[in-house]
Design a protein that fits this description.
mainly alpha
Amino acid sequence: MAEAAKSVMFVWEGTDKQGKRVKGEMSGQSDTLIKAVLRRQGINPTKVKKKPKSLVGGGRRKKITPKDITVFSRQLATMMSSGVPLVQAFEIVGRGHDNASMQDLVLGIKADVEAGGALTDALRKRPLQFNDLYCNLVEAGEHAGILEGILHKIATYMEKTEALKSKIKSALFYPAAVIVVAFIIVTILMIFVIPQFQELFASFGADLPALTMMIINMSKWFQSYWWALGGGIVGIVFGFLELRKRSKAFGQFLDRMSLKIPIIGMILNKAAIARFARTLETMFAAGTPLVEAMTSVAGACGNIVYYNATIKIRDEISTGTQLQAAMRNVGLFPNMVIQMVAIGEESGAIDTMLGKVADWYEQEVDDAVEALTSLLEPMIMAFLGVVIGGLVIGMYLPIFKMGAVV
């Protein structure tokens, strides 16, 4: 009896029904069979070849990030729009991912769906990657028979949300990185460079300027206690992050204080309003009842102040209060936002108005971040000039005085 042909992993490329380039991986007994399967799926294969053995079994195993889930959502929506069956779409997306952890996640969802389970149930088994908002939207799409459209809305929502987060993080990262670099430079000067000047000045046999003596004393302290300073900074940062993660009260305190920081607080307020509007728009467009949607919206705001306000809005809506009236009662939302929501309620197009509000505030955040970056650059240059320049001047003052005497 002839031995059955062994399946091999193939890498393929081709074009879908809309002419877009697609690629992925598929196991089969030959490239001819792979091409036949792809054609049945509406994909015209242009290249099919065996996957190198060194790459079989997935790529590097990395942590799954929100960006991975965003890309997955867009790929899945695009596959379904191209007429690819849901299970096959999972196969294509999963096999084509470089991250082995993401491969396992997607193929695990595929296995649950193949076994007859609902997509929502498969996603709820993985709460670390798919939150309640994501699952609720998918569930609404499955019940209404519009899963493809909902997946496109989810992908768009996540892309906009991640872009907003990225802009805020980049604005905060720049000054933090400069301060860290400045600290490293100062440490090197204090421990290695200034002691050389100290030996030179000792041969002068004259009194040194006050600024020079202060810098030399600081250098001596750095040389003796650099380990305590470094350990203290690391300990404070680590303790701060752990306390924020483990203490709910401390995290809420930071959320409240962050909204009051000049300039940055304004950006965070606008970002929270943008997320509120974008999330509620997406939930509304999916047909989710308003009271149910508000719970997911609260979690998506990203700040405890707006979370509590949204829960309060939900409670008032459940007793019959209009959305715009409930939003006005919490005292957090600008009058323009409330008026837009009121117009949406009157015209029956709340999701459209919320989308316009989200677009407006996302643009406001973009502009504010650019303005903040432009403001920080000269301030950082001035800070570096004072710190580094002060050290250099302090070290050269005795030499300047000697030159003046000569």
